[in-house]
Amino acid sequence: MVQPYPSAGRMPGPVPSEPPPSSVVMAVRLMYAGAVVSALSLIVGLATVGSLRDSLHKAQPKLTPAQLHDLQTVVVAGSIFIGAISIGLWVWMALMNKAGKPWARIVATVLFGLDTLFLLLGVARAGAAAGTLVSILTWLIGLGAVIYLWRKDASAYFSPQAGQQAR
Question: Averaged over 66-73, what is the pLDDT?
Answer without folding.
Answer: 87
